[in-house]
């Protein structure tokens, strides 16, 4: 923004400079009242150009770093050109210094009022620039907040989808665990039934063995001991 304002002042300065650079030659060829009029005109235009240069210096101080080198170079060239014009004017009109001083004193009230008005305008412009910059900063902050909110919403949506998938996986795992528990219960029942059958078979086998032993003992007794 500062560079744009600087370019506007550049155009104003160029128009003033184009008018000022013609005055020394005209003053050299003129005499009397005509020369005095040219001196007054030069002094007034020089004052206006000086105000423009001061405004450009303020814009230079507030400009972004990427613009400052080019703006500073232009401003130094303008100062050099103004110094050259002043020397040319002193050469063309030997009484330029004293005349300009007299003109300055006679127009002191007017220039003072103009300077005050210019200062007021510059203050208002500075406040406007500050307000605009604040609005731009606020807009950028809002844009960053909107981008952050959009990113947060996107992340939240992804998290919700991921949690939904995990919930489905947990439901499937729970169902498998329930089925596994039911299978284990059936297995325990089968094992208990098998255990009972095994104990029954053992008891029957024991009874059969005891009966066989009794029969064997009876046969041995009858054959060898009972005569």
UniProtKB/TrEMBL annotation:
The chain crosses the membrane at residues 203-224. One of its GO terms (cellular component) is ER to Golgi transport vesicle membrane. It is found in: Membrane. One of its GO terms (molecular function) is SNAP receptor activity. Residues 111-126 have a biased composition (Polar residues). Residues 89-126 are annotated as: Disordered. InterPro entries: SNARE, T_SNARE_dom, v-SNARE_N_sf, Vesicle_trsprt_v-SNARE_N. GO terms for biological process: Golgi to vacuole transport; intra-Golgi vesicle-mediated transport; intracellular protein transport; macroautophagy; regulation of protein localization to plasma membrane; retrograde transport, endosome to Golgi; vesicle fusion with Golgi apparatus. The keyword Protein transport applies. It is a single-pass type IV membrane protein. Keywords: Coiled coil, Membrane, Protein transport, Transmembrane, Transmembrane helix, Transport. Pfam families: V-SNARE (PF05008), V-SNARE_C (PF12352). It comes from the Eukaryota. Residues 132-194 form the T-SNARE coiled-coil homology domain. Belongs to the VTI1 family. PANTHER family: VESICLE TRANSPORT THROUGH INTERACTION WITH T-SNARES HOMOLOG 1B, VESICLE TRANSPORT V-SNARE PROTEIN VTI1-RELATED. This is Vesicle transport through interaction with t-SNAREs 1B. It comes from Seriola lalandi dorsalis. The lineage of its organism: Eukaryota, Metazoa, Chordata, Craniata, Vertebrata.
């Amino acid at each position: 923004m500062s560079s744009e304002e600087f370019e506007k002042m550049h155009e104003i300065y160029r128009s003033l400079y184009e008018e000022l650079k013609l005055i020394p030659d005209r003053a050299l060829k003129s005499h009397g009242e005509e020369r005095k009029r040219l001196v007054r005109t030069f002094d007034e235009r020089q004052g206006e150009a000086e105000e423009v240069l001061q405004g450009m210096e303020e814009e230079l101080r507030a400009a972004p770093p990427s613009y400052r080198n080019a703006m500073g170079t232009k401003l130094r060239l303008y100062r050099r050109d103004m110094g050259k014009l002043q020397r040319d004017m002193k050469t063309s009109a030997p009484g330029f210094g004293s005349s300009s001083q007299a003109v300055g004193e006679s127009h002191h009230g007017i220039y003072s009022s103009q300077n005050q008005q210019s200062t007021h305008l510059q203050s208002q412009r500075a406040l406007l620039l500050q307000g605009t910059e604040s609005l731009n900063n606020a807009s950028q902050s809002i844009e960053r907040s909107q981008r952050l909110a959009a990113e947060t919403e996107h992340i939240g949506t992804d998290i919700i989808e991921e949690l939904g998938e995990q919930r489905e996986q947990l439901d499937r795992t729970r169902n498998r665990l329930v089925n596994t528990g039911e299978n284990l219960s059936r297995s325990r029942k089968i094992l208990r039934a098998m255990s009972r059958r095994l104990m029954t078979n053992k008891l029957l086998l024991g009874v059969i063995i005891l009966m066989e032993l009794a029969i064997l003992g009876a046969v041995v007794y009858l054959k060898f001991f009972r005569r």
